[in-house]
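[Automated response] Your request has been received and processed.

Submitted sequence:
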Amino acid sequence: MKTVSCLLCFTVMLMGVVALTGCGGNGNANAQNDSGDSDTETDTNTGSDTDTDTDTDTDTDTDTDTDTDTDTDTDTDTDTDTDTDTDTDTDTDTDTDTDTDTDTDTDTDTDTDTDTDTDTDTDTDTDTGTEKAATDEYCDQTVDLNGNGIADCKETLVVNGQFSSNIDGWEPTSELVIEYSSDDANENTQSGSLLTSLNARSNGSLVNYTMQCVPINDSSHSFWVQYYIPPNQEGDQFPGIRLTYYTDPDCTEGIGFDQASIVYNISDVIEGSWETFSLQNRMDPPGAASLLLFLSNVEHDSFSPGVVQYDNVLLIEDGEPCPGEDAGIDINEDSIADCQQNLLTNGQFKWFAFPWQPDPQASAWAHDDVGDRHSLQVTYYRFFESEIEFSGVTQCVPASEDEMYSLYSQAYIIDATEDVGASISLQFFGDGDCQEALDDGMHQTATSLETDSWIMHQLSDIVPPAGTLSAQVRLNTHVLVNYSNTSKVTYHANALLIAK
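Generated structure:
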């Protein structure tokens, strides 16, 4: 209840017009029940509002406390005590927030709005460490094969690469048996591995795979996997990896099985120990939209098929300025990385031959173990005597008569090879597909014969003939003696074509 002093004379407008006049009354007026003060607080506060209103306010508190706590708490506490507590507690409680709304309105109006509106939003978003990977049933966050501080299961493009509880997502070839094993590479009891074994078969060498198709962007990728060969098994097995690229996201439309594949058979293994294999910064073939990843079980001249196990398959997209290529290579020494100015695709031959096209009498395979660098093995097959002195691989690129061109490449011949040489050539064409050769459009280096060392081949500042629309680069293997039924090999590295 609030009292009205006789020394105060005023007029209050409430809900339309209500005039209340007090002037010169005696002390009995102070005991009047102020019925105009609707301090009834219709608190529908579904949350046990402990409103301890100790208001010793000597003012005409028009407390229109429309505390319609539909938890739209419009606590319009119009307390004319400078506390315009327009507590628009718009608590439209569809929120799941542990809203123990202790609205401690420090309003001497001890409005301890203990809104036990215990909006128990036990945010079950409570990130308990058992996180699942997008691609894995269980995510072992301790595995980080590439050492980048990110759990492999959080970044791998492979489905079920940790084989946490099954081998879903992997398909074997007909000769291969695959099954789940509780033996984990990191001894994690919540995870396992993929066990592969060959069906019994006759003597001979055989490679079989389990595989998975992975959609990718045409850029550069790195790959890691752990493998295990049990000790003292009868079969002579070793692991292997194959990556084959396709132009559609479903691994059906191939770029070329031989020209766009990376193959590694890991014959130097330690039995009884989990080992790690990696392929890093591989540039994808142009137009690649998917990659078929093969995990191999390779039988080597054995009657008894054996076991190969795999775990923790990691495939990630790289983020480098020269995806998949070595930005430190500058064979023309102009202080610009070759990979940043090369008109040729895959001039460093990292992991595959595509898009270089072999002649009908030639083949090409990428190597990384000849003469300390990545190279392209170019083989010329002579099945009959021929006047054709050389054969090799080619690549066609757009060109213009308004530019000057320089071509560089390195060649290597193994010492044991006889009657073989290497060269490079550049030819210009009047169409965009290197079909209509132009006169005076052919330029070729001399044939190098040196062995066991990398020899630089170079054609500098070549001016194309008028009408040039394309240019063909050729890397050649020469057979120096005209005889049949032979094959000769040269290796080529760091092919670079630039325009000025």
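Summary generated for your ticket: The CA atoms of residues 282 and 324 lie 4 Å apart. The longest strand covers residues 486-499.
If you did not submit this request, please reply to this message.
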